[in-house]
Design brief:
The structure is a single chain. This protein has helices at residues 2-30, 34-40, 54-57, 89-92, 159-164, 175-184; strands at 50-52, 62-64, 96-98, 104-113, 119-126, 135-140, 144-147, 152-155. It has 189 residues and is an alpha+beta fold. Among the domains are: 1-33; 89-169, PRC-barrel domain (SH3 type barrels, Roll). The model is unreliable at 5-13, 34-42 and 47-57 (pLDDT under 50). This is PRC-barrel domain-containing protein.
Length: 189
């Protein structure tokens, strides 16, 4: 009798922590949001996803079609090298800006991207002397010609037209963006 009791006690000690851990894991899984659970569990087959295989196997049992996989990123994940048709924004910033008479009228200050992250405009610093008294104007990308060989941007505007152009005003960033910018340094325009 003493031997059976000690075996039962030993079994309870060995099984107890394992069952407790399993119960804790189950509670953790139950407390996860439904959204996470939906992402980790495969979707149940739908009526459209089930087809009859009678013609192939002679059986009338339904089978599930393999779900079509859609990849949100159709393009390569990494770019290894800049091509001759591309230019880095960091290279473009600071390029001299000239007009058709080859007069230096300013320099590239920034680029404007749309919601799809494509450049739609260029911010140019014009006028002033050594950066003092200069103002920022913005032009659509269709109004500029980039010459990589000479590191210049050419415009079809006179100095007077550019000096009379309205100043560009950047949109004030949201509170979270403002904190990030403050930690990165002051905004120059």
């Amino acid at each position: 009798m003493k031997n059976i009791t000690s075996h039962l006690l030993l079994a309870a000690l060995l099984i107890g922590p394992a069952s407790f851990a399993q119960a804790a894991d189950q509670r953790a899984a139950d407390s996860q949001p439904a959204e996470h659970a939906q992402r980790t569990q495969p979707a149940a087959p739908t009526q459209e996803g089930i087809e009859q295989t009678e013609s192939r196997s002679g059986s009338s049992e339904p089978t599930e079609k393999a779900p079509e996989q859609s990849n949100a990123f159709e393009t390569p994940m990494f770019i290894e090298q800049e091509t001759s048709e591309q230019i880095l924004a960091s290279q473009l910033l600071g390029y001299s800006v000239t007009n058709l008479k080859n007069e230096n009228v300013g320099h590239v200050k920034d680029l404007i991207l749309d919601q799809s992250q494509r450049p739609v405009g260029m911010v140019i610093s014009v006028g002033g002397f050594l950066g003092l008294g200069a103002k920022h104007i913005a032009l659509p990308m269709s109004a500029v010609q980039i010459n990589r060989a000479n590191k210049i941007v050419r415009l079809n505007f006179s100095k007077e037209e550019l000096n009379k152009a309205p100043s560009f005003t950047a949109q004030k960033p949201a509170q979270s963006e403002r904190k990030e910018q403050e930690s990165a340094g002051p905004d120059m325009y």
